[in-house]
Amino acid sequence: MSQVLSIQDLHVSFFTRKGEVKAVDGVTFHVDRGEVFGLAGESGCGKSTTAYAILRLIKPPGKIIGGRIVCDGIDVLNLKEEDLRAYRWKKVSMIFQNAMNCLNPVHRVSDQIAEAIMVHESVSKRDAISRAKQLLSLVGIDESRANDYPHQYSGGMRQRAIIAMALALNPVLLIADEPTTALDVVVARQVLEVLWDMKKRFGLSVLFITHDLSTLAEFSNRIAVMYSGMLVEMADTKSLLSNPLHPYTDGLVKSLMSLTRRGEKLWSIPGSPPDLAAEIKGCRFRPRCPIAMERCFSKKPEFIEVGQGHYVACHKVVS
Amino acid sequence: MMEKASNASFLSKNPHLFEIKNLKVYFPAQTSSLIRRKYVYAVDDVSFFIDSGEVLGLVGESGSGKTTIGRVIARLTPPTEGKVLFQGRDIMSLRGKDLKNYRRMVQMIFQDPYGSLNPRLTVFSTIAFPLRVQGIVKDKNKIREYCIDLLRSVGLSEDAIDKYPHELSGGERQRVAIARALAVKPQFLIADEPVSMLDLSIRSGILNLLMELKNQYGLTYLLTTHDLRVAYYTCDRIIVMYLGKIMEIAPIEDFMSHQFHPYSQLLLSASASFGFGDRPKRRLGATGEIASAIDPPKGCRFHPRCPFRTEECSKKTPPLAELRNRRFVACFNPQ
C-alpha cells in the first residue's frame, strides 16, 4: 500500500518567555492511502500541533525545528510560500475542532463552497455551485437547503457542510481535528458515519485526531498514541486496543468506560499530564508510570518495532 | 445521615428526599416581534422524585433541560410553575435561617473547573469562604487544619492549599471544586457534567472519587450527563430527557437490558460501545437532530425523528406512565 503522508522525526517548538516548549519532539509515522489513521492523546500532548505542521500553519512563537514531511510526493517543509496555497486544500484539507464556526455567516453555504472551488480551479460559477450542491447531498444535506445561510443550519449540518467543503477539491488527505467533540452524542455519530462513508466510497485517507479512544476503536484502521510531544505506541487498531504494550496506552484502554461492566472501580492513571516547559529526564511518562525502572529515570526510550507494525517506546517492554 | 432531628418528622410523612412536581421553566426568547413574546420551553411539566442515598442520573443531549432542573433544585433559577419539595417543604418558600440551611445541605459541582473557581482566590480562601459563611468550624485556628483534611479526602496533597487555580491541572481543579462543595457537610450534591471537560486519563479518577465520597458521607447525588457510559457506572436510576420532557425513567441495570422509548434506544446506539474497527453499521434508527425548544414539536416532542411514530404522536402528548415496576415511559408505542 502506498503512503499518502510520511512524517519523519518531526520537531516543533514554541519559544515562550518561559523558554523553549517542545510541543512535538521527534514524531515519526505515516498514513497509508485509503486508511483512517487515528492520532490519540490528551490535551496538550502535541497532536494538533502535528496537524498544523503538516499544513505548515505553525505561526511564531512556534517553529518547525526539524524533520521531514512528505505528502503525496511533495516535500512539504521545503515548499515555497507561493506553492503552499495549491498544497493546502487541494492536497490536504483540514476540519478544525470548532469547524461549525468556520462558515461565514453572511454568505450562503453553497456560495462558500463554490468560492473554494473557483479559487483553486478555473470553472464557471454555475458549475461550481452545482458541484457544491452535489457535495452537500453526499454528506446528507438536501439540495433545497444548499442556498441557506449557516445560521439556518443546525450544528451537525454545519459540521457536515464543512466536511463537504473540505472534500470539494478531492484532497488526497483529510485531517480531522476532534471533528465531533463539540457535538452531541447522536449528532456526533451521524457525522462520523458520514466521514466513514466518504472513506469507503472515495478511498479517502483520513488523519483522525481525537482524545477519545473509543471513537477510534470503531472508526480507524491504525492508531498512534501521543504523550507529551512524543509517540508512545503505534499499531493497528485491534492490536493496540486488545494488546496495549505501553503502560500509558494500557491505562487509557483500561479506563475506557464500556457499557458492559458495572460496579467495579474504574481504572485510573495517577497524576496528570506534565508541563511541557519543564524538562523531564528519561521517559516523560515515568512520574505516572506503575512499572518504572531505574533506566527510565536517565534514558529516553526509543520508539522501536516490537511486532509487525507494532511500535512502542518503553524500556520495560523492549527489555 | 439525617442528623437533624427537626427533619425527621418530615421524613416519616414523606418518603422521598426530593419531590419535583409539574416543574416548568420557561425563559423569554429573543425575538424580533415585540407583540408576540416567545419562550424557550427549557423544562416543560416534569415530575419525579429523588430518594435519599441514591444516585439519580439526568441523561440527555444539550438543550434537553437537564442542567436547568439541577439549577432549579440548587435554587439558582426560579421555576416558572410547579414545585420542588425538599423533605416535604417547597424550596421557594424557604426564608432566612431555613434557606441558609438549605443552601448548606444542597451543593453543586459545575461542568467547567476552569470557570467555577475564582482565579484570584487561593485554594484555602476558596474552601474557607463557605465554611465561614455557614459557621461550620467554630474555632478559627482550626479552619486551615479542616481544609487540609478535606483536600486529603479528595486526593490532593497538603501543599495544594496555598496555590491559585492556574497552578492546578483540570483534574486537580475539579477536586478543589468537590472539596468546596463538601466543606459545608451537605446531604445532597448536584453534579452537572462533572467529567465532560476533563481529559480522558483524569475522568475515571474523578468518578471514582465521587462514588467513594458518596459512600463515605452517605450523600445523595443528582448527576447530569450526556454520556450513558458515565451514567452506567455511577447511577442507580436514570431519567432520559428530551427537549424539556421526561421520556423514560428506569433503574440503570434494567434500562441497559431494555429501553422502552425509541429515543432511549437512539441515545444508547449512539454511545460508542468499544467494539473493534471497520464496522460502523448504520445503527441509528432515527434521523435528524434535536429541535428548537422555542417552538417545540406538538404532541410528543420526539415524534419528528421517531421511526415508530403514528398519527396520535403528532396530536397528543404521551403521558408518563408506569409500564412495569419502577419503569416509567412517555410513549404511545413503547418498544
Task: Write the topology of this structure.
The complex is a heterodimer of chains A (319) and B (335).
Chain A: E1 3-16, E2 19-32, E3 36-40, H1 47-54, E4 62-71, E5 74-75, H2 81-87, E6 92-95, H3 109-120, H4 125-138, H5 155-166, E7 173-177, H6 185-202, E8 205-210, H7 213-219, E9 222-227, E10 230-236, H8 237-242, H9 247-255, H10 294-298, E11 304-307, E12 310-312, H11 315-318
Parallel strand pairs in A: 3-8, 3-9, 6-7, 7-8
Antiparallel strand pairs in A: 1-2, 1-4, 4-5, 9-10, 10-12, 11-12
Helix pairs in contact in A: 3-4, 4-5, 5-6
Chain B: H1 5-13, E1 18-28, E2 39-50, E3 55-59, H2 66-73, E4 81-86, E5 89-90, H3 96-105, E6 106-109, H4 123-134, H5 143-153, H6 170-183, E7 188-192, H7 200-217, E8 220-225, H8 228-234, E9 237-242, E10 245-251, H9 252-257, H10 262-270, H11 311-315, E11 321-324, E12 327-329
Parallel strand pairs in B: 3-8, 3-9, 6-7, 7-8
Antiparallel strand pairs in B: 1-2, 1-4, 4-5, 9-10, 10-12, 11-12
Helix pairs in contact in B: 4-6, 5-6, 6-7
* Mean pLDDT, all residues of chain A: 88
Which stretches of chain A are poorly predicted, pLDDT < 50 over at least 5 residues?
none
Q: Which strand order does the major sheet of chain B show?
A: 6-7-8-3-9-10-12-11
What is the domain tally of chain A? 2
The biggest beta sheet of chain A reads: 8 strands, mixed
